[in-house]
Amino acid sequence: MSRVIRVALLPFVLAWSLLRLLFWPALVLVVAGILIPDGSAWFQVVLAGLVVYLLGALTAFRAAARGMFRSLDRGTVHIDDQRSRKGKW
Predict the structure, then answer these.
(1) pLDDT tens digits, 61-88
(2) What is the pLDDT at residue 34?
(3) I need a labelling partner for 77 at 20 to 30 A (CA). Which of 25, 43, 53, 60 fits?
(4) 54 to each of 5, 66, 77, how far by Cα in Å?
(5) Measuring CA to CA, which residue among 19, 57, 16, 50 is closest to residue 36?
(6) pTM of the entire structure?
């Protein structure tokens, strides 16, 4: 049952993690747009830094999403603890 719930909630989990990754860069971009005067070279510096951050963050997000899908693909591991005790002491 928990596997069904994990599969059903996976799009929401992925969307929430992507939203968390994109919140701070969006906030920095808005603040930089308000505080930095028009035509300043600092805006390009801030923008370049955010682009580098976003490339790394999206790469990490893709790796995490791929890992989540792989963990769903593995399935449940059953450990059989009822071994035959014949021949044992």
Answers:
(1) 999 999 888 877 766 666 666 665 565 5
(2) 92
(3) 60
(4) 30, 18, 36
(5) 50
(6) 0.68
Per-residue tokens: 77: 């591991």
What are the DSSP calls for 17-38, one per residue?
A: HHHHHHHHHHHHHHHHHHHSPT
What integer best gives the mean pLDDT of the chain? 84
Paired tokens of 35: 């505080």
What amino acid is encoded at 21 in this protein? L
Position 89 pLDDT exceeds 60: no
Percentage helix, strand, coil for the chain under 3-state DSSP, each rounded to 5: 75, 0, 25
Cβ atoms of 70 and 6 closer than 8 Å: no
Contact call for residues 63 and 12 (beta carbons, < 8 A): no
- The answer to whether 10 touches 71, Cβ cutoff 8 Å, is no
